[in-house]
Amino acid sequence: MHFEVLIEDQSGKTTMEILLPKIIGENHTFRIIAYKGIGRIPKDIGKNENPGHRILLNSLPRLLKGYGQTFKGYGAENKALLVVICDLDNKRLTEFKNELLSLLESCSPKPETLFIFAIEEGEAWFLGDTEAVKKAYPNAKEQVLKTYVNDSICGTWEKLADAIYNGGAKALEKKGFHAIGEEKSKWARKITPLMNLNKNNSPSFCYFLDKLIRIKN
């Protein structure tokens, strides 16, 4: 099977480049495409969208239709799956998922698609494995890690920053958006290789893992 993965930022791509081969094994192929933010599904789906902006949800109507056509060329023995990974942020899960499924249903042909949500943010998957965090960052603040409730809406990346970044989230925020993105990518490179796939306390990560294992088998 071929896995085509769309994700909203570069740090997420880094995480997936490390995790995905461990999950799906060597007998499958994959490609991971990072976007420059999540954006929102356009109200006027028929309106021309600027592909150069590379915002995930803004591009999704066009992408789903394109993958529908592309996946038609895959035979029964060489299936393809589109995996769209989004941070939930402050959205309501059921409403957001239904909106995406409705968009998918409007496609003809419809690409085989799996929508995955990191709750609240991708850093929740790191915080689901605090042992990996502490191995990557031996000076991580245990008292901060202990206050985190898995998959809670609490400012997840800020919580991780408070645990492992010198000066915490406030110090990192002062450096600006670009510095935050670079630091998130650094966390992905350092923490992800140390994660134990079978011992993660994030429900959204466990859902993601279970879905991919079932599909690839």
What does this structure look like?
With 217 residues, the protein is α/β, with parallel strands linked by helices. It has two domains: 2-119 and 202-216, 3-Layer(aba) Sandwich (Rossmann fold); 123-194, no CATH class. It has ten helices and four strands. The chain has helices at 10-24, 56-71, 93-105, 123-127, 130-136, 142-146, 156-164, 168-173, 177-191, 203-216, and strands at 2-7, 29-34, 80-87, 113-118. It has a four-stranded parallel sheet, sandwiched between helices. Helix 1 links the parallel strand 1 and strand 2 (29-34). Helix 1 (10-24) runs parallel beside helix 9 (177-191).
CATH level-3 fold name of the largest domain: Rossmann fold
What's the arrangement of strands in the largest beta sheet? 2-1-3-4
Q: Provide the succession of SSEs.
A: EHEHEHEHHHHHHH
Which CATH C-level class of the largest domain is it?
A: Alpha Beta
Q: Helix tally? A: 10
Secondary-structure arrangement, i.e. CATH architecture of the largest domain: 3-Layer(aba) Sandwich
Net shape: globular
Low-confidence stretches: none
On the 0 to 100 scale, the average pLDDT is 93
> Kindly, what is the distance between the CA atoms of the first and last residues, rounded to a whole number of angstroms?
10 Å
DSSP strand tally:
4
Kindly give the count of domains.
2
> Helical proportion?
40-55%
How much beta, percentage-wise?
5-15%
What does the largest sheet look like? Answer: 4 strands, parallel
